[in-house]
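Record type: monomer structure entry
Structure origin: computed from sequence
Chain ID: A
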Amino acid sequence: MTKFTITEDFPKNEIEFDARFSNPKACYDYLLKQKWPNGFICKKGGHSKYWVSSRNLYICTQYLPWPHFLQIKPFGHFCLNK
């Protein structure tokens, strides 16, 4: 599991939290920025192009992830470069 460090102004109370994370997209955008501050980079292949699945998986476009696609956890990413 990736450890996240809060490096920016995080909401200080429930009102600020509710305003900032008012919908799932806002939450995923925040997590994406925390995990990949300079944009998505595939750990295995170093690629920066990806697509986002309906389960919010960041999948490297350089490789076809099937059948391993079903084993990925939400907000993970997958690349078949070996």
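Annotation 1: The beta strands are 50-52, 58-60, 77-78.
Annotation 2: Residues 69-73 have pLDDT under 50 and may be disordered.
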